[in-house]
Write a structure and sequence with these properties.
It is built from 12 helices and 7 strands. By secondary structure, it is α/β, with parallel strands linked by helices.
Length: about 250
């Protein structure tokens, strides 16, 4: 349909849609330029070594403080404390990308006392920091790669995965492994970095990639990981589309 076929009332609306599309394209281009591209330029083994270097070094040492200053530590805890993601009844919980133990600390507070908690991370120094920070013998920590989890099929009834999927070249690799080790009916709390301006800056600082929300959710569905709900830290985060992608998934 040519522009001449639009009525006078329709033409301003069409121009508005064109401006919005142009703005969206411009933002996407800017975010693409800002995003760290290392994960797409080198082999996975090379990139894996870089990630271990980043988190084993000074950045990893201040990760817990960064989480506290940014508010992510308190906001993540709020989701579990308010039972937006309910841990009640979970017996065997896997925390992926435990880092300095931020999410494991929440699990110790809000999971059932008898629940078994296992935390994994690709960086051994990060797990050492988690043990020191949490001062608890309850969690079991294992140095492991999300792309190759050292667990049997259908081991866990609950998974928390906080900002680690973006350290894989593609989401399907990690999500398929998580689906494999989850029991049918098991639930997952997934956080990952989104392909917006804030996500691009995160990518630059922490040497990771970003994911498109719609594409990620579609990948989850392909792996029988169905979205129960999309979660947001606060109403402001939802309004501004900030804080990354946070979803509750169920294996069916």
């Amino acid at each position: 349909m040519s522009s001449d076929t639009f009525t006078p009332r329709q033409r301003p609306r069409r121009r508005q849609h064109q401006r919005q599309a142009a703005t969206k394209t411009k933002k996407k281009a800017i975010n693409g330029l800002l995003e760290n591209k290392l994960i797409r330029r080198v082999s996975y083994d090379q990139y894996r070594g870089k990630v271990q270097q980043v988190y084993g070094g000074p950045k990893g040492a201040i990760l817990a403080k960064c989480s506290r200053i940014s508010g992510h530590l308190a906001l993540g805890e709020r989701l579990l404390k308010k039972r937006h993601f309910d841990l009640a009844g979970c017996q065997n919980i896997l925390d992926v990308g435990s880092g300095a133990g931020q999410i494991v600390g929440h699990l110790l507070k809000y999971a059932d006392p008898a629940a078994r908690i296992t935390g994994i991370d690709i960086s051994t120094p990060m797990l050492q920091r988690a043990r020191k920070r949490l001062k608890s013998d309850r969690p079991e920590f294992v140095t492991a790669d999300l792309a190759h989890l050292p667990f049997a099929d259908e081991t866990f009834d609950c998974v928390t995965c906080g900002y680690v999927l973006e350290h894989l070249p593609e989401a399907k690799t990690g999500l398929s492994e998580l689906s494999r080790v989850m029991k049918p009916g098991g639930r997952m709390l997934l956080f990952t970095t989104e392909d917006n301006f804030g996500g691009a800056w995160t990518s630059r600082v922490w040497c990771c990639r970003t994911y498109n929300r719609k594409e990620l959710i579609e990948t989850c569905r392909e792996l029988q990981l169905h979205v129960v709900q999309e979660l947001w830290f606060t109403k402001v985060h939802k309004m501004l589309r900030a804080g990354g992608i946070c979803v509750e998934l169920e294996k069916r």
